Amino acid sequence: MAPQQSSNLFASISAIVIVLAAYNIELLIANIKLSFLIVLLTTLLFLLFKFLFKRKSAADGHSSIATTHTNIAKKPKSSSPVISDAQHENPSIKESITSDKPAQWSLQLLQDMDWKNFQELCAHYYESLGYITKTVPVGENKDVDLYLYKENSPNKIFGIIKCKKWRKLVGVDLVKALFTIQSDKKIPLALFFSTSGFSKTAISFCEKKHLKLISGTELLEQIRKLSLDIQQQLLTAAVRGDYTTPSCVKCHAKMVLHSNKNQNKQVWRCQHYAKCKTTMYLSAAKK
Q1: Quick check: helix, strand or coil at residue 170?
Q2: What is the rounded CA–CA span in Å between residue 272 and residue 255?
Q3: CB neighbours of residue 215 within 10 Å
Q4: Which candidate, 27, 144, 176, 282, has a CA 20 to 30 Å from the CA of 99?
Q5: For residue 226, what are the contacts with CB-CB under 8 A and spacing of at least 6?
Q6: First CA to last CA across the chain, in angstroms?
């Protein structure tokens, strides 16, 4: 039985006891009508008290609801970004909100990224055009970075690609080396990508040849001609992971920054040092 019901019943019984005590019990027993009238009045009083109590409880409840709505209306809005339940469950979504990686293409982005990321970007660009690309294994051919194939002829090399993420202009010697391979193997197309561009001599050498020189600015122009979805896919792939730390040119592993105590300078060393002793100074790592 609920506490409130027990309290009401106790009050009713108490009222009956008080009424019976006020009269001569023997007289009440002798007078049946009077006894019946007392019981009836007591029952009516109990029902009246119960009705009044329910109205009071309902009024208190409405007052509590109104107070709650008032507090909600006065609650200040948070200035922090709203994160949905899905974002709490998926950390990658929350990470994308606070990510400080570039949100759009720029020449500065091409110059800041690792040479390996730049090479992969060139490969992904041609894959978005419907070609098949294959990275040249480490140590196989230093003058070629990628092989290019047509989808309808995946076993025949259609083009060769060389990529240089330099801050200085690419000279004619590297361009000639690529052209020599193209001529010897009779490959239809050769492409040379450089974030910085090419010297005038290199540009003149490529005239009337199936060898295209593509600077960082020209690459950005070609990327911006693609659909927005593909542009975003290329950007996401280009800045995935640690895209600015240089990779070892010999084993392609990420390098680690060390202090050179003798010359009081910082240098990049292969993470597999001393098995792989590739070392680059900071200025060289940016080229």
Answers
A1: strand
A2: 8
A3: 20
A4: 282
A5: 128, 234
A6: 85
3-state helix, strand and coil shares in percent for the chain, rounded to the nearest 5: 50, 15, 35
Handedness of CA 174, 178, 181, 182 (dihedral sign): negative
Structure tokens at 95: 């990470």
β-sheet with 132-135: strand ranges across: 132-135, 146-149, 159-164, 189-194, 211-215
Strands (E), the chain: 132-135, 146-149, 159-164, 189-194, 211-215, 255-260, 265-270, 279-281
Tokens of 79: 């200035």
The residue type at 109: L
**Matching residue, tokens 């492409």:** 191
Can you read off the two tokens belonging to residue 111? 């110059």
Indicate left, alpha or beta for 245 from its phi (over 0: left) and psi (-120 to 50: alpha).
Answer: beta
Range list of β-strands (E), 53-145: 132-135
Burial class (CB in 10 A: 0-12, 13-18, 19+), 37: exposed
The fold of 107-244 is: Trna Endonuclease; Chain: A, domain 1 (3.40.1350)
Q: Kindly list the domain boundaries of the chain, sorted by start residue.
A: 3-63, 107-244, 247-287
**Dmax of the chain from CA atoms?**
135
Pick the closest to residue 233 from 128, 82, 131 (CA basis).
128
pLDDT of residue 66: 43
The residues that bridge with 267 in the sheet, in sequence order, are 258, 281
Report the C-alpha gap between 24 and 38 in whole angstroms.
13
Closest CA to 260 of 224, 284, 237, 242: 284
Give the pLDDT means over successive 10-residue stretches in the chain (287 positions). Answer: 54 58 59 69 74 62 45 39 40 46 92 93 96 90 94 95 94 97 96 96 95 96 96 94 86 78 73 75 55
